[in-house]
Amino acid sequence: MGQCFSSSVAICSFHADEVETIPGVKRNGYIFSDGVGKMSLAFAKKTLDQVNLDVDPSALQVRLGGSKGVLAVDPNLPKGVHVQLRPSQIKFDSDHLELEVVKIATYRNRYLNRQIIILMSALGVSDDYVLELVYAMLQNTKKILTGPLEALYALSPRSDNFGTSNMLVNAIQAGFLKSGDPYIQNILVLFRCSLLKELKKKAKVLVLKSACLIGVVDETGLLESDEVFVHVWDNSATGNTNQVITSRVSIFRNPSLHPGDLRVLRAVDIPELHHLKNVVVFSSKGERDVPSMCSGGDLDGDDVIWDQNLIPTLIYSPMNYHAEEPENVERVELDHLKDSFVKYVRHDSLGQIANTYLADADLYGPMDIRCIELAQFHYRAGMLDDASNKKRTTTWLFLAVRVVCKHDIRAFSGMQTSRGVNASAEGTDKKTRNTTAGRRVVDHGTSRGDLYAQSYKNYVSCLIQEGSAYDSQFYIKGMVSYINKARELRGHYDVKLAALINHHGVKTEAELLTGYVVKWEKKGKDKTVYKQHDNLLKSVRQLKNEWVDESEREFIGKHKQIDLSKGNEIYAKAAAWYYVTYHPDERKEYG
């Protein structure tokens, strides 16, 4: 039921005859096509046209009535059929056939984190090489503020849900950084601070030869069981990539806690699959499908790394990730819905188990029996959202607590130490410094060149508070008639902006509008930083859409398109908005 509450964008509706149900690919109790269906190429292009995205579509993560999952492009679909669903995608029957897009297959680089670094180190990856990546990332981060070329180089491998990196690249290429635009400079300061913060707190290390991709199944049957197909393609402002990977690759998902979660496969070139870009195509052959060998967390896609220095040399047997069957009832009553909803909302044990796992992995290594058991419990806890048997839920939590008790019962239960911090997340870290690769990334980085000193903690003092860089070339004679209205609208905008800053608990306008939040002033009702960012993103999208509509409304023609014959008026209005925002006289008046 939780799928009805996650964020998405409604696109279009279907007729029943445009959607088919096809069999899944099953073997040995495993579903090789789990959660993956098909769509026509024409429909994929039409869908992306409606959301104004200039990408070559290969796969969409969607909801369609009572179904959800991934739709991959298949050029051989029967005429008139736009979508083919598999039974594993159908959660409940529904006559409501409106398509909602959750995610689009695009190319973006991936980062390592403490959990992955710990596993890689245990599986034979060189700690020194990971540290080399850290130092290279630090050098690039230091150069971000030195000039446009350096900023573009740092931004090029990165993308984000806010679209900030693309916006920054476009603005820098247009000359706004060179002209000293304070807003662009402040965003770059926040970008740099956010990178340093994530590196220090999470050991978040950029890997250039990597991608986070949506996983699909090989419908051609040409891939062998140990093979995948990966074609990365990117023509956005932040990158220019078009490559079919042909090498060994490491594949995993986040979060990954079990040593068997990292799988090593061969990426090969299959011409019949060239229409699939920015996805990882898994084989439909073998005794067991690869996705079932990875951890249960697949909300952010599959991580693929083809940097040969980061390929594990040791292979650990995968854990058996089998979901428990939910309780079946003859009739769903209101009490069932209430119980399911309450458990969906209140479930919050994942973070506690993950913190305890990191503490034990730092101390004993990820292959220790305590860590293996915690990895199993972490997966089980992730499945509790779907569990409908309260007794079974309580049993798993009880067993998890018993394992954690061997380390520190307070860590799992969330009890506070006398210092007011979580015993697992903080106290144990201090006892185990330099014991694993995850901690060494943080500690070595700190000692080398005092990486985090002068750190992000005083970031507000680095932001430009006063002064402006009004560019006189944007002064247009016709803008005078728009000035008074622009001043009025700016006042309304400032009020709404201040309300959002207060509501979401961020310090600055730049943090709010970019998502580069260095410090949250308050947490509110959100239980995770991910959820905070997600809610912030929704608010910012709504704010931007509202003001884009305000700026364009009077220029919309008969066909709901901007009337380009009014180009002079459009430029004049834009110039007036720019004037009341940047001109020194206006800034003196409004502060």
Automatic annotation (TrEMBL):
Pfam families in the cross-refs: RdRP (PF05183), RdRP_head (PF26253)
Keyword Transferase listed: yes
Family annotation (InterPro entries): RDRP (IPR007855), RDRP_C_head (IPR058752), RDRP_core (IPR057596)
Record keywords, A-Z: Nucleotidyltransferase, RNA-binding, RNA-directed RNA polymerase, RNA-mediated gene silencing, Transferase
One record GO biological process: siRNA processing
Domain RDRP core: from-to ranges: 1-381
Nucleotidyltransferase is among the record's keywords: yes
Domain RDRP C-terminal head: 469-590
Enzyme Commission number(s): 2.7.7.48
GO CC terms, sorted: nuclear RNA-directed RNA polymerase complex
Highest rank taxon of the organism: Eukaryota
Protein family (similarity comment): Belongs to the RdRP family.
Protein name: RNA-dependent RNA polymerase
